[in-house]
Amino acid sequence: MKENDFVKEITNIDEDFARWYTDIVIKAELADYTDTKGCIAIRPYGYAIWENIQNYADKLFKKTGVKNTYFPVLIPESLLEKEKDHVEGFAPEVAWVTEAGGEKLEEKLCIRPTSETIFTTMYAKWLNSWRDLPFVYNQWCSVLRWEKETRPFLRSREFLWQEGHTIHETEQEARERTLKMFDIYVDVAENFLAMPVIRGRKTETEKFAGADETYTIEVMTYDGKALQSGTSHYFGQNFTKAFDVTYQNREGKKEYPYQTSWGISTRLIGAIIMAHGDNRGLKLPPKVAPIQAVIVPIAIHKENVKEKAQELYNMLKDKYRMEIDLREQVSPGYKFNYWEMKGVPIRIEIGPRDIENGECIIVRRDTSEKITVSLNELENKIKELLDKIHINMFNTCKKRMEDKTMVAHNLDEFQEIMSKEQGFIKAMWCGSSECEAKIKELTYATSRCIPFEQEHISDTCVCCGKKADKMVIWGRQY
Amino acid sequence: MKENDFVKEITNIDEDFARWYTDIVIKAELADYTDTKGCIAIRPYGYAIWENIQNYADKLFKKTGVKNTYFPVLIPESLLEKEKDHVEGFAPEVAWVTEAGGEKLEEKLCIRPTSETIFTTMYAKWLNSWRDLPFVYNQWCSVLRWEKETRPFLRSREFLWQEGHTIHETEQEARERTLKMFDIYVDVAENFLAMPVIRGRKTETEKFAGADETYTIEVMTYDGKALQSGTSHYFGQNFTKAFDVTYQNREGKKEYPYQTSWGISTRLIGAIIMAHGDNRGLKLPPKVAPIQAVIVPIAIHKENVKEKAQELYNMLKDKYRMEIDLREQVSPGYKFNYWEMKGVPIRIEIGPRDIENGECIIVRRDTSEKITVSLNELENKIKELLDKIHINMFNTCKKRMEDKTMVAHNLDEFQEIMSKEQGFIKAMWCGSSECEAKIKELTYATSRCIPFEQEHISDTCVCCGKKADKMVIWGRQY
Fold this sequence. Notes:
The structure is a homodimer. Chain A has 15 helices and 23 strands. By secondary structure, chain A is α+β, with helices and mostly antiparallel strands. The relative contact order of chain A is 0.12. Chains A and B meet through strand 2, helix 3, strand 3, strand 4 and strand 5 of A and strand 2, helix 3, strand 3, strand 4 and strand 5 of B. Strand 5 of chain A pairs antiparallel with strand 5 of chain B.
């Protein structure tokens, strides 16, 4: 195989971003299509990314008192139907089990598209007194939503996620929990995955089916589109009333608790690919990368090279997530391309002359910079570079988001911008869903969120021209 | 609530063991029944046990090169049907999705009862050369088997497990992998969960549908029954041939790889309850216990008691999994019973006089022994006691298994033993499935395994009297 075959096999990122994306998913061996239409198999390299995200997030969850649980994958139809908005939102896209154990079922069961209904049912059973509150439970599991058009990680029919479901004594406590988990999602995206996010609240049209409020983190992709990458919902008493969840309050009276739910999913892997990747392939943020540095020996058959490379590997393998590429049937150039395509943040090259000089060469995946490093300083240098790479990758995305965020004062400007280049648009909005629908119809852009950081652009709605006091971020979504 | 209410609420273990078991599951808040018939919700205390098992096993897996993945929960009917024995074994107990996204499906999809079929299909896609081998993949997920009679953890329709699926270049390597994973299961059961096991091979009748060989660990419950608690299967080329998984071998010729699969599940939680529990409730082995020691302050309103208890908690909480019970609405006696019922290995009592003396009292859950310990020595003493408790719990089970294992030379002896007391029977077997069937019909005992540790009891089959050279362990199963 030629040295540049990898790169040639990947569609040019600026020519066809969607194809580039699926090329990366397949070639970097993150996932693959299966015989179950619309469902992927997540391969070890992709799953290791998910495990790292899980470990990071789960620790943060537990620090705030979250407890993990597991609830059934199957939900009876009658439960799904108890909350009106919820069933309207989810029933059209669920999969139904109608036969089991050789018999037709009396009541059909859906595979969970989300588990508010079954958590709330059990909370009704377990809750007695205000002393029992809060319930702050979570589960890591898979859910199924029968999407018409699918895309690996971004819109798979089945995907992995965590769903937290909590109930609280007071509205204030529930609202605080909603935002506390939201803050953790921001932390995961920005501090762990090097992806700057827009923080905001969804409009009525875009919020979760059955929620009072939905908070979202929105990532901008390489091509300027929006990816909803984590949501946290405040439900008020919508579900606890529909499911008759009550308790004796401090005054001995019957009361309904206040509820939240929140989730992040394997869609984050899609976001990493789309936010960070380039024409050489995947580019993984150092903290989540399954392999943080790979050692490639040069002139592997020369005396002492293999041994020295192995020695370095042994020295580093307990400090960093390391790989060593000792394949003899492919050239160093092939290996360079291979590990770049796999997105490994740091490559360490070591050949006969380097060994003589007590040095090696480090190559950064993010900048392609080559750095000669003394072997004595290697261990510390890797740490330093991984930190730098994280910051640089974050800043690169940040700058892109700033460059590709425009301001529109009226519909003409809005359409003009959207027809030229993909990106976010900041524009005022009156609050009506008709204006949202019109903008979507004309530009395919949807309201991403009402960001926490508001700016005063004008006093009038970008669409209808009526009085407006909310700035909305708009964009086309994946 | 009275001090002994907990104990009273639990059925006597010697009167009705099955009811005692479900009482423990519910009262210790390990799991609960749901509106989805035959499926349980695993509550935080139960799930924490599973997480501890996962962490322990997953580390051991990874040390041997296992990589985690995630494959679809839905398997098309046509895939399930490809291996004859497999489909015969599993088809009768699967659940079928027949509608999704508002439409009837062209091909129905089953919820995975196990994933040999879909792993093998993807292996066919990914495997090219001998250089790609082995694939040593695993997934932690839930599976569904539509059992007629269910019991929480032991026989839930849905249960959590891990399923490893590997393919190898040679028969020898595959056989070694089968036994390597088997050894890890022995490690999990004995060293982590303090449950001695019988190691052995299943007979033709009892082995996994589609496997050449099935290895099993069998646990004996409090009432002398058998619990299959982990299995490892060698498949030969059965599935790789049925699914046409081929590769170019070292000579450039087309070859089929050799396959294994292996799994442990949340059934282990049921095994823990049934192997260790007693009339005071659950009794958790120290290494898996979500709470290893609980601090109960005595005379909590007396000066300095609460503060001192809190101080101890703070000192110990990073060394052990600690809990402190500061509830003011219930008595110390209530708390003792509560935490005993929850199976916490160590209770630490501290009251005004103890504080005066610079001491506290430790009570062991396994022996009820009370030990006065100087506060200076507390930290080390806990470590020492947790180790001792583990050993004692293991030995208690071991002794029971020895006491309740009898030898039978003929069918009369076999029936006689089984009619008196529940337990294991060691007996010679000729190898015919007719004899197995007859023994099952007459005594409800099944062949648990052909143990690795063989003994020569006689030369003739316990059932038919013909020549026999295998000793089998028999028992009634849960």
